[in-house]
User: Fold this.
Amino acid sequence: MSAVVQSISSAAPEAERELTDGFNLIIDALKLNGLDTIYGVPGIPITDFGRMAQAAGIRVLSFRHEQNAGYAASIAGFLTKKPGVCLTVSAPGFLNGLTALAHATTNCFPMILISGSSEREIVDLQQGDYEEMDQLAVAKPLCKAAFRILHAQDIGIGLARAIRAAVSGRPGGVYLDLPAKLFGQVMDAEAGAKSLVKVIDAAPAQLPAPDSIQRALDVLKGAKRPLIILGKGAAYAQADDEIRQLVEKSGIPFLPMSMAKGLLPDLHPQCAGAARSTVLKDSDVVMLIGARLNWLLSHGKGKSWGEAPKQFIQIDIEPKEMDSNVEIVAPVVGDIGSCISALLAGMGDAWPAPPADWTASVAKKRDENVAKMAPRLMNNNVPMDYHGALGVLRTIIKERPDAILINEGANTLDLARGVIDMHQPRKRLDVGTWGVMGIGMGYAIAAAVETGKPVLAVEGDSAFGFSGMEVETICRYNLPICIVIFNNNGIYRGTDVNDAGADPATTVFVKDARYDRMMEAFGGVGVNATSPDELKRAVNAAMDSGKPTLINAVIDPTAGSESGRIGNLNPQSALKKK
Assistant:
């Protein structure tokens, strides 16, 4: 802790006693709680804070846009189970960070957005301060909790509340408002040190009720066609061994949602990822582990779920999640690790295997679909199509299972989910519950920083545009990130035509753009790849070198479909149908 006056005697006059200030108290509170990395953008009133935090041993990564820094903080929370910290300036900077804060809350990632703000007395009278805004009021509807700290002596307790709110129960985003005057407030150093709080047991285990465990096991035991669905909540829980034991002991086919891929390898004999449509339609009992019946699972009803009635078992830490779309006949409320351990204990030593005709039919459909897809993944077409390019990346990830895959786009995302097998947990990070584009570079930076592992970011050309300037950030920090941009000259495809005028069609980009030269401009490696063979060589070279690399993967402009695989969500004009 830095002092502004030297003296260690508590009996000394105020003018001679050791003092501290808001800057140092915030830094000390962060370090006390193991929050040693900050993602943000410097500016008034937090510029000096960033400098001082860096000098005190906290890693401070400066981005080119707050939204990308926020996405980095959000995925840092997912990977570490500690709140990722994003630091922004007031008003516009704060607003830029809000999308990421809301994204973290929606996806149940622990994150704290810390923003400097204008003074309360000016804001409340709307007197027109620099970047004046009632930021706390704006943030509240978009996050799990929001707090404002007005006095230096409350910094310790304020940060403790933010940490506990972010990680306890269902994790989420928290906003912490720090008015400019707080940073310069001075107080006695000894009293300041005593005011700091080290959060104890921030996310305590929440044990399930024994009756709920027995009910779930009874429903599961009576199933003829059971299915387990693993969601990203299961991946976040880091109860990997317990989940594997449950799946393998039960013998039940499992379907991983995209960010749960790798909890058990996608090549595991019980994995039904390649038979998704079949298992959703034909199953009779479905156990959801850290997965929600939202739009990504068609809300648990409709054509994709077939005609046969379903019984749902749901394991979730949030009681209000139960019955959100359909009846949950066996709700199990608690943290996933505790729930899975209780289920394993209740299963005993001799759990009956699911009917052989069910598991055999799932395996048969899975193998048929894999065999049908295989030739498409082996083509060496020029220009590339999605399958030829993804087939190459699939092999690279298989050979480098420790690498982290970042994925976003429309067709680039939707097809990669099904094509690229994952082999280890928390190695696939993507757009999540909202399907939001722009997470790519922020995720890639945080994944490299938090794990020290090589990162492969597979981007659609449109998705890359939301965060592309962060390639400078990647080069500045010399991070081991290889970016592959699937460049088909547009959104969905690059062949649309505007018949009404001279302007390009709304979905078309500059033809034959060379994104690789952006990376070269900042000292990184840029490669233009026009075939799967060239792509394979370029990615392997990048991953071997660890140098910041961007590969412009030239994709046939006619490849791609409207909105990828969710075109049904795109409303059509009634007049157009006539």
